[in-house]
Design a protein that fits this description.
Layout (H helix, E strand, L loop, with lengths): L4 H8 L25 E2 L5 E5 L2 H4 L7 H7 L15 H14 L4 E5 L2 H4 L8 H16 L3 E7 L5 H5 L8 H16 L5 E6 L1 H10 L10 H29 L5 E12 L5 H21 L7 E11 L29 H11 L6 E5 L10 H17 L4 E6 L19 E4 L4 E4 L1 H12 L1 E2 L14
Helix pairs in contact: 1-14, 8-10, 9-10, 12-13, 13-14
Bound molecules: beta-D-glucopyranose.
Length: 452
């Protein structure tokens, strides 16, 4: 439950040495005359992000549900009731409002809205109207994702994105949402992380449908490109007709790459290729169909070209001697700056639609959070039109193939009784959101060698 301001102050002014790793015990002392806050532009959006299947619970009519039942998730876990947000959204939005947020990103569950091909469920639509109204009532501007990895069962049964009817069905669903919910949504995300979906579902096969193959990858890539383009057009057609200012984009996972061997030409060539293929290809194929660029930033890879090993011909990920999250993902705040600079080439407003780390004891999250936000500040100063930051995530939730093992929440959830407990980083983020900036005092969360 939200704590008093005094308790919060206690939490964010703890001895830095206990906050993250031992580096922090040697913190630089703040010089007495530098007390200014690094202010963000007025109207900057501060939010958190979630996705329906990961938090709502009881989502039984989709491909992921079957996938879980078949035992594909770590230790046989299933999403089950998740955070029960389907019923507890008011309570959760109170936590988001108390955080000082003025925005929130969530997704609508297509499987609930259209449980059978062409049959739209008015009850489900009404539910999401209430959810969005609950956000607006609390001053949280909604960013809504139409498709965040889970497919209606009927759609999956016909071949999912490989099915020739896929694009027209997604366009129809998009238009329906614009018609029904257009008055309540400020920012629309058609598709979440198309390249991650391709990799997980058709590359490594750890997500449904778990069908590997290069031809499938290419076919689904082209369908997702067409699905986004069609959805963009339909949303605009409907929303423009109804007089709403539609702003539509995607949430794109962007990876920063670094050559493992600094002087290796091959490593460098590969990272340029990987950057182009993974980070930019989708934008290139959907040029002209974005009103903003949405960036999900989590990954930094050090790549080594190694032609002898077929399974990882071009690609090895090295994290040794680097700080990593509970899931072994390198924490690299500099990459946030690089990503934003690189995305500015499209000349559109940029939103950080997701960013966060798994940290069950919250040890590394305060520092990661402050340093990521600091890099966004620097990117804005360098001229990038960044308009908002949505931390992943408000709550611990169902982390796909990792089940409940990845704890990404600013708020911990006890899944036995659905109790919510804000972590220390909740109050650190609250400080940032309420100040619309980073107070110099938060420098204590950064380590040596970090530029302020
Ligand atoms: C996805 C989320 C996921 C998060 C952490 C993003 O790739 O959009 O659904 O939970 O990363 O893995």
């Amino acid at each position: 439950m939200p704590m008093t301001d005094e308790t919060k102050e206690d939490l964010i002014s703890v001895d830095p040495a206990s906050v993250a790793d031992d580096q922090l015990s040697e913190l630089p002392q703040a010089s007495p005359h530098i007390h200014e806050t690094r202010k963000f532009p007025d109207g900057f959006l501060w939010g958190t992000a979630t996705a329906a299947h990961q938090v709502e619970g009881g989502n039984v009519n989709c491909d992921w549900c079957r996938w879980e039942q078949a035992g594909h998730v770590l230790r046989g876990q299933v999403s089950g009731q998740a955070c029960d947000q389907f019923n507890r959204y008011e309570e959760d939005f109170d936590l988001a409002a108390e955080l000082g947020n003025n925005a929130h990103r969530l997704s609508i569950e297509w499987a609930r809205i259209e449980p059978e091909d062409g049959r739209f469920d008015q009850e489900a639509i009404l539910h999401y109207r209430r959810v969005l109204e609950a956000l607006r009532k609390r001053g949280l501007s909604p960013m809504v994702t139409l498709w965040h990895f889970t497919l209606p069962q009927w759609f999956a049964d016909r071949g999912g994105w490989e099915w020739s009817g896929a694009v027209s069905r997604f366009a129809r669903y998009s238009e329906k949402m614009a018609e029904e919910l257009g008055d309540l949504i400020d920012l629309w995300v058609t598709i979440n992380e198309p390249m991650i979906y391709l990799g997980q579902s058709y590359g490594t096969g750890v997500w449904p449908p778990g069908k590997k193959g290069i031809w499938r990858v290419l076919r689904v890539f082209s369908r997702l490109v067409r699905a986004h383009r069609a959805s963009y057009d339909r949303l605009h057609r409907q929303l423009d007709r109804d007089g709403y200012r539609a702003r539509v984009g995607i949430a794109k996972n962007v990876v920063t790459y670094e050559p493992y061997r600094r002087y290796s030409e091959l490593d460098s060539v590969f990272i340029r290729l990987a950057d182009r293929l993974f980070n930019h290809q989708f934008f290139i194929w959907t040029r002209g169909k974005h009103d903003f660029i949405g960036v999900n930033y989590y990954f930094h890879y050090r790549i080594r070209y190694r032609p002898t090993k077929i399974s990882s011909f071009f690609h090895e990920v090295h994290t040794e001697n680097r700080e990593v999250s509970d899931l072994g993902w390198e924490i690299n705040p500099d990459g946030m700056f690089d990503t934003l600079m690189s995305m500015s080439r499209y000349g559109l407003p940029v939103y950080v639609t997701e960013n966060g780390i798994a940290s069950a004891d919250d040890g590394k999250r305060p520092r990661a959070l402050v340093s990521m936000v600091k890099e966004i500040y620097h990117a804005i100063k360098a001229g990038v039109d960044v308009r908002g930051y949505y931390h992943w995530s408000l709550l611990d939730n169902f982390e796909w193939e990792k089940g409940y093992d990845g704890k990404f929440g600013l708020v911990a959830v006890d899944f036995r009784n659905q109790q919510r407990q804000p972590r220390r980083s909740y109050y650190v983020y609250q400080d940032i959101c309420r100040e619309n900036g980073i107070r110099h005092d938060l420098l204590r969360f950064l380590g040596h060698g970090v530029r302020w």
